[in-house]
Design a protein that fits this description.
With 152 residues, the chain is α/β, with parallel strands linked by helices. It has 4 helices and 6 strands; from the N terminus they run βαβαβαβαββ.
């Protein structure tokens, strides 16, 4: 387990207009590629996404470029996914939704205001360092940065 690792949390990119489970719009596809370009050298070991098209499509360009498989998690199981991430201590990307990203960031010990349906491109970078202990006893220092993923 690493003594330093980074978790990136991002909302899915712009979605197309659709009634149920929309894919990404053209702008969203550009933003997904920009995310892949931005995190290409982040030494990610895992990528997690909810099982919806828009989140999967946001994660897929990066997963393809790194040779990783996008792993699904349930949007309502933030606690479970966060416990697993902290236990593994690996560089990871989590793709969520406007109503789940703030809770994921806060659950990791960071700060985030609520996002609206118009908020796209915010990338939360939470770097954990000086980690000590194991499991639920694991404690780390935290450095948080908020970046913007462009649409090119």
């Amino acid at each position: 387990m690493a003594n330093e690792f980074t978790v990136y949390v991002v909302r899915h990119a712009e979605k197309a207009v659709a009634e149920s489970d929309p894919p990404l719009s053209e702008k969203g596809q550009k933003r997904a590629q920009a995310l892949a370009d931005l995190l290409q050298k982040a030494e990610l070991k895992a990528i997690y996404s909810t099982p919806y098209q828009r989140t999967q499509m946001t994660a897929q360009p990066l997963a393809d470029s790194l040779g990783l498989t996008v792993q699904s998690y349930r949007p309502g199981d933030a606690e479970g996914i966060l416990e697993a991430l902290m236990a593994r201590g690996e560089n990871t990307l989590i793709v969520g939704h406007s109503n789940t990203v703030p809770a994921l960031v806060r659950g990791l010990g960071g700060q985030s205001e609520n996002l609206t349906e118009q908020d796209y491109g915010d990338l939360f970078q939470l770097t954990f360092y000086d980690c000590a202990g194991e499991g639920e006893e694991k404690r780390c220092q935290l450095l948080q940065t908020r970046l913007m993923v462009p649409t090119n």
